[in-house]
Structures are given as C-alpha cells and as structure tokens.
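Task 17 of the worksheet. Students: predict the tertiary structure of the chain below and write it out as structure tokens. Keep your answer in the requested format; marks are given for formatting as well as content.
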Amino acid sequence: MELEPGVDDTRFLLFAGGTRLVCMDCIDENVERPAQLMSAQVARRPAKAHRPLPVRCDLGCGARKLAQPLQSREIFAQELGLEQALLLCEPALELLNQAHDVTIDIATRGIVVHASDGGAARELGVSSFGSRSNRPHSWLAPLFVGHAIYRQAAYGSNHPLAIPRVESVMDLCSALGWLGESEFRESPRASVDQLAWFHAPEYVQALKHASETGRVDFDVRRRYAIGTMENPVFPGVFERAATSVGGSILAAELALEGRVVFHPAGGTHHGRPDRASGFCYFNDPVFAALALLKAGVERVVYIDLDAHHGDGVQDAFVRDERVRTLSLHEQGRWPYSGEVSDTGAGRACNLPVPARINDSELRVLLEEVVLPLARMAAPQALVVTCGADALDGDPLSSMQLSNVALWSAVERLAALAPATVVLGGGGYNPWTLARYWSGLWGRLSGREIPRELPADALAILRGLRCDLIDDEDIRPEWLATLADRPNRGAARDEIRTLVNLALAEVDQSAWTPLSDRASRQAVATT
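Model answer:
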C-alpha cells in the first residue's frame, strides 16, 4: 500500500542516514534539530528521485537501524502501529548515526513488513477510524486554527487573563512570515447542540443569557460559578468560549486527515459539565477528544503540560476506556488535585512536580514515564495542552522550564500518533507566552527559530504589558528573542521518587489497548 504524502508534507521529522533509521528518542539534542529542519526542507521540495514517505515501526524503544528495502528508492510502508512515525528521505543524507540493531525481515514490492522477536514477517493493516477503514494517513502539513474574536477585550480588569495572548501569537507568527493563508483555518463557533455533547444545556443557556444581558443573579452565580472574580461575565464571553470549543472540534477533524493542528486558543481544561471553573467556561480539550471519538477513533491519549492539574479532562473521561489522560503539573497548586496516587479508574497518570522544575528533570519524566506510557496506549490520536504557565517567569507558578525544552517535548509527543491536536492553556506572562506558542508553531511547522527577530516582531514584544509583572522584572531576552536559554541542572531526588511512585501506581493493563489485552488473555487460556 503506497502512502502518498502531499507536497507540503512536514508532519514527521525523523531522518534516514545511510542504511539506518534514527528516532529522536535516542539522539543528542545538538543534532536533533538540524535533522528535523533538513527533513522538513526535503519534504517541502520533494524531488522525483527522492520522495519522502512515512513509515511506522512498532519496536518500542526509539532509535532503530533497519536494512534498506531491497533496491527500492521510494520507500512505501504499511502502518505497523505502536511506535512513532519516521519520515524517510531516500537517498538518505549522512546526518545521524546512533541506532540500535534491528533488521527488516522482508521488503516486498516496496512494502516494509517487520517480524518481531525473530518470528515470521507479519503484515499489519493501516489503522482505521471507524467507517474510514483502510484509509492511509495523509501526513499533511500542520495547520493553525485561530479567530479575530481573541482581539476583543475580555475578562474585565484585574484578571490574570486580561492580557494579550492568542492575538500576540498570531501577530508574532505573521511578522515572522510563519502564518501563510494555506496554513491558517478560522475557528467556527460551536453550536448550542455541540456544546451539549459535554455541558448541561441549562448551564449553556445560563452563560448565553449572562453574556447577552451582562447580568448574573445570585442564584445563577452560586449554581454555575459565573459572574465571579474568577470567572467574570464580560461582553462576548459566550461567543468567545464557544469559539474556543469550535476551534478544538475543527482541530480534531483536521488532525484526522493526518496532521498536527495547533489551536492556541484552546486548553481550557478546568471547565465542568455544569459550571465554570478556574477561568474556564467550557472545556474545549474535552470537545477535541469527543470529536475524535465521534469520528471512530478508539484510542485517544490526552497529555497536559500546564502548571495546573488537568482535572476537568481527567474527570470527563474517567469511565471511558478509549481515553487515557496524563497530567504533569506543579504540586500544591490550584486546583489541589492530581496527586500521584490518583489514577482515576486506572487510565490516568498524574505527575505533581516540585517547584523550580528544570529542563533536565522534565526530560527524565518524559523519557521514563510520559513517553513509555503514551506508547503503551498505542494512541490513534493525541491531544496535548501546552500551558505557558509552566515556563520560568510566569507569575502564577514556580516552574522553571525553558520554552526550548517544552518545544522539544511537544514535538516528541506529536510523533506518537497519526493525528495530533496541540492546544494552548494557561499562561499569565504575555512575553513568555507569545514566545513559547509562536516558537512552538515554528517548530511544529518546520521553521528555523531565528537568533535575531525582525523589527516588526520586536515591536510586538516590546508593546506588551502586564499588571502582574513589574517593569524591572521584565527580562531583556523576553523583548529580543524567541528561544530561551536552556535551564539544565541536576535531577533532584524528588524527581526520582516521583518516577518510581508513578510507575508503581500505573495499572499497565489499563493503559494497554483492549485488543492487546484480549490477545494476551486468549494466549493465557490456551
């Protein structure tokens, strides 16, 4: 089965070197980015003799050395399921050389099939999404979902979200030439019927009425938690929140074409079915996952990298065996949930990290808990919330991650599934947020992060304001660059303890796909 990529295919950024395939899991950070950029460049300008095509490997650990498939100069593949996708460019460039020894057993008519554990070669069909059976993944170029509604004043005054956020990201990306017309999709507004997928109809109507009238009665405020200092009512609040939901639904639908879709206005992960919570009126990540499930996806993994526990999403799917949730958040931070012992019904993992977590500690958690668990779930689709409050310098958290570490983390996660929705989330420092999400879009879409910014981009950063950050605390790099200096350091004992506790709490059988569990049970009973 030939998997034809589009001309703009930049979806996967792993690279073939010589006769080796190398996974970004096991390569040095210093060579990872050049490899990604070069493969993206080749993918954008495919030559007839060396066209990039996607292939998947189910071998587990990451870096792989595979034999060149016979004399084929165009590599085709069937989907092999459990491991991240590899973008192969043939003839390969000698960029990377680290890999483990695993060999392809046969390659017939350009179709790569792998035999695990020395057994006979086995062909696995391309995973299907319900009625879309036998549909090969397109691996099309990433898309950005946004809307002009986010330029309107919101949240009133003296609110942490009353700062420029999504509009700054769109402006910065445009100033860098990163937001072409073909890459942008306007977010629709979710209908009342769509909102009822998750939210109680009476709550939806209460928020709509409050938005239209600007008034909230005492009983409505007490019942639905709107019209409070935390969740204020302001002109257009219903339309804004419904547009965020519509954007996440659209992002999920577009991702199913075989894309990464970036929707920075999403990430309102605290919203409850019958009330607002934590600045979140609706819960758009839930809608992204629901849209995937409604399309027939059977395995969704939700990963939350916000400083605050993704409580609303975890609770929404606690009884749904098709969804796994993983939240990495700061310990002791509102909403004061998400302890490592909290595994929901066995399909949740929580990593409450200590204050001042650094990049090296994040990498330990990724490589020893997050990535292995996500792979174990074999996701057909992934939803990632990327709160900018996990960054060093955010006024509402004590985490100290750099944006480059989070860019890399999201890229590695996005490579785990054929469909990926990347959402925004929290973030209350307008400078670090704009730099993080703009650079994240740059990385996801295969752009080089510039060392020096053009004048228009500098003007955007220098024009930002925030009441929560004093002028003397604004760092020079926030006004002049996109990329943070990496914050590497020793991994503290608390991180090692957290890894061990999390792995001890995880019910591996609950994270394994149902089909795999059934197969193992059948073998055990024969």
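Marker's comment: Confidence is low (pLDDT under 50) at residues 1-138, 522-526. DSSP finds 15 helices and 15 strands in the chain.
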